[in-house]
Amino acid sequence: MENYLDMQEEEQQLSLQDYLRVLYTGRWIIVASFLVVLLATAYYTFTTQPVYQAKATILVETQGLREQALFDVNYLNPQSTVITNQIEILKSRNLA
């Protein structure tokens, strides 16, 4: 009885050669699938319109009160402009 179970276990185990044989048997299906995906990717790459996108943040610093216009909202409090600029920079960048 025990000998029969050992033989049955050996029959159920697959070796590396068994896996390679299955791959070799279906090699044309594997190659055809690879070529279809490759050609579909190449077609998509060469036929779609490229989309270029850029994003930038510009910081304009004032040199002094002389350069600010009299009608500027922050004329009396120039420090709030600097703080607002710094807050916008922090919002716009990906911080590590």
Distance between the termini: 66 Å
Please provide the ordered H/E string of secondary-structure elements. HHHH
For the biggest sheet, the summary is: none
Radius of gyration: 35 Å
User: Helical content, roughly?
Assistant: 55-70%
What percentage of the residues does DSSP assign to strands (E)? under 5%
- Number of separate domains: 2
Average pLDDT: 76
β-strand number: 0
The DSSP helix count reads 4
Ranges where pLDDT stays below 50 over 5 or more residues in a row are: none
The SS-based structural class is mainly alpha
Tell me, what's the shape?
A: elongated
List its salient traits.
about 100 residues; mainly alpha; 2 domains
Structure characterization notes:
- By secondary structure, the protein is mainly alpha-helical.
- The chain has two domains: 2-47, no CATH class; 54-96, no CATH class.
- It has four helices and no strands.
- The chain has helices at 2-12, 16-25, 27-47, 78-92.
- It is elongated and about 90 Å long.
- It starts with a helix and ends with a helix.
Which helices and strands, and how do they pair?
Layout: H1 2-12, H2 16-25, H3 27-47, H4 78-92
Short description:
This protein is mainly alpha-helical and 96 residues long. It is 59% helix and 0% strand.
